[in-house]
Amino acid sequence: MHGHDGIVPRRNSDAFRAAAASSTWAVLGLMRSLAHELGPDGVRVNAILVGAGRSRIQDKGSSAIPYDPELDDAAALALFLCSPAARNLTGQAVRIHGLVPSFSVPP
């Protein structure tokens, strides 16, 4: 039916999925651009993507660890990414969600 198409969210979270996805991709694009721009000066730029936990995204993959991500997990990763041990990591998006994705979408 031409002219009568519409979008009806199935759950409350569906209503903002497009906005969340587009803003996430914008931040990832900025992160990668900054990694290219600042890399020659020795500045590394990475992103930490903290998931919502298995209960909200369990249909996206299978559980690999028995607990949901916490702020301490992100803090530990941030410390690692800022350390000399991560000197060769830049322009990367690292996911913390405890799941093994059923498919991979490049960040």
- Please state the structural category: alpha+beta
List the domain count as a whole number.
1
If helices are DSSP runs of H or I spanning 4 or more residues, what is the number of helices?
3
The CATH topology: Rossmann fold
Number of strands: 4
| Major pleated sheet | 2 strands, parallel
CATH class: Alpha Beta
Overview of the molecule:
With 107 residues, the chain is an alpha+beta fold. It has one domain: 3-Layer(aba) Sandwich (Rossmann fold). It is 35% helix and 13% strand. It has three helices and four strands, in the order αβαβαββ. The chain has helices at residues 17-38, 54-57, 71-81; strands at residues 47-50, 61-63, 93-96, 99-101. A two-stranded parallel ribbon has the order 1-3. The longest helix has 22 residues, at 17-38. The termini are far apart. The model is unreliable at 53-60 (pLDDT under 50).
